[in-house]
Amino acid sequence: MFYRPEDGHGLPHNPFNAVVSPRPIGWISTRGTDGSENLAPYSFFNAVAYVPPQVMFASTGTKPDRGDTKDSVSNIRDTGVFCVNIVEYAAKEAMNQSSGPWDRDTDEFALAGVERVDCDTIDCSRVAGAPANLECQLTQIVRLPGEANFVIFGEVTGVHLRDDCVVDGRFDVTRFQPLARLGYMDYTHVTELFSLKRPEG
């Protein structure tokens, strides 16, 4: 089949997220200027540069108590920092619990039963015991076409790797099985790897 998004797809559910998958999940933690804590997962997330290391995530909705965006973006606009927490398979239920449209005063760390600890390079909490945490300084926020589409870019200023995930000098994702988003209500997790050698040119 072929469809133009502006005309609709004619299917029971939008296939777009299923086409662009799997997508890594950035579990974004932020702290408001009032000291409030926020933790929310975003599946429009990825690394975008090596030197300096940089990441991005996109927010595509609004909350009535945040105006044109959600808690994460609002906090980042105010403070200029955020932390990306990598989600392991074992944390899937806590991650899902933190994804709800909770009131801005809700502390998702507490709501989902997630232990927190302070970051080292930024004024923000991170998920204690996560396989990895990326402490980030905001570099830019880009507004995309659409009502509430924002892309947040950050430079990584600190990296935490859980000791049991570092094996023979490599970060071994099979030790924690990273969670990834598919389409609809579907997820997957990484359980096996294969390698390909790049052609020499």
3D architecture notes:
The chain is mainly β and 201 residues long. It has one domain (21-189): Pnp Oxidase, Chain A (Roll). It contains four helices and 14 strands. It has helices at 16-19, 71-79, 92-97, 108-111; strands at 23-24, 26-31, 37-42, 45-49, 54-59, 81-86, 116-118, 125-127, 132-143, 150-161, 166-167, 170-171, 179-181, 187-189. The strands form four sheets. Strands 3-2-6-9-10-5-4 form a seven-stranded antiparallel sheet, covered by helices on one side. Strand 2 and strand 3 form a beta hairpin. The longest helix has 9 residues, at 71-79. The radius of gyration is 18 Å and the shape is globular. The N and C termini lie far apart (38 Å). The mean pLDDT is 96.
